[in-house]
Design goal:
about 240 residues; mainly alpha; Regulator of G-protein Signalling 4, domain 2; about 65% helix; flat; cell membrane; signal transduction inhibitor
């Protein structure tokens, strides 16, 4: 054959005579961990740790540390607010409740008058000191906007100037009724939309349905709790001690 005289070259014979490569020694810094530094952690290390933790949280379906911390803080805040509500539920001198010289007002308030507040919600609202005590109680529950709206409607019904009627109605709507209002009251969608339509031609009765809803809510929800609160029971005790 034409190529029969050409010698065969194998892989082993091709590298014959070439010395094998010498092993490379790794630096000592790669064999031993670096010393622990007492200074602040490296920003790069912090980022790497955060990324690894985020990947782990995503893989196992757990909340990130920041979210868990925020949830604990929110739970703690709600607990503190709850404790604050219970702590501020008791008054001794009633200076924050009774308007205009509370000591004199307390002397004028009889046990019979304070007891009648439990007869009905409207009796409570019609009494000057009963209204003040109920307002103080609602503040401990962070729901005084309901009473403020009801009072604003009562004042609105006394408006006699047609020129002021529209502007006063708009202020009440923007403060209590509109979505995301500063002191938005808890009413249903239908009542809110009906009140919104009433704003097109404001009248003395444009808030009647919304006011009725809020009145019913306070009567069924807040009023029974007020009668059981320390604000009311302590006030009764003060009037009874004055007689003894």
């Amino acid at each position: 054959m034409l190529y029969s005289n050409i010698p065969r070259v194998t892989t082993a014979s091709a590298f014959a005579g070439i010395p094998p490569p010498r092993p490379q020694m790794l630096p000592a810094s790669l064999w031993h961990p670096p010393p622990v530094r007492s200074g602040p952690p490296s920003p790069t290390g912090e980022k790497l740790g955060f990324c690894c933790q985020s990947l782990f949280d995503h893989a196992v379906g757990t909340d990130p540390p920041a979210e868990r911390t925020g949830q604990r803080q929110n739970r703690g805040m709600r607990t503190r607010l709850g404790c604050l509500s219970h702590k501020s539920d008791s008054y001794n001198d009633f200076t924050a409740i009774l308007p205009d010289k509370p000591n004199r007002a307390l002397k004028r308030l009889s046990t019979e008058e304070a007891t009648r507040w439990a007869d009905s919600f409207d009796v409570l609202l019609s009494h000057k000191y009963g209204l003040a005590a109920f307002r103080a109680f609602l503040k401990t529950e962070f729901s005084e906007e309901n009473l403020e709206f009801w009072l604003a409607c009562e004042d609105f019904k006394k408006t006699r100037s047609a020129a002021k009627l529209a502007s006063k109605a708009q202020r009440i709507f923007e403060e209590f009724i509109d979505v995301q209002a500063p002191r938005e009251v808890n009413i249903d969608f239908q009542t809110r939309e009906l009140t919104r339509r009433n704003m097109q031609e404001p009248s003395l009765s444009c808030f009647d349905q919304a006011q009725g809803k809020v009145h019913s809510l306070m009567e069924k929800d807040s009023y029974p709790r007020f009668l059981r609160s320390k604000i009311y029971t302590d006030l009764l005790s003060q009037t009874q001690r004055r007689l003894s």
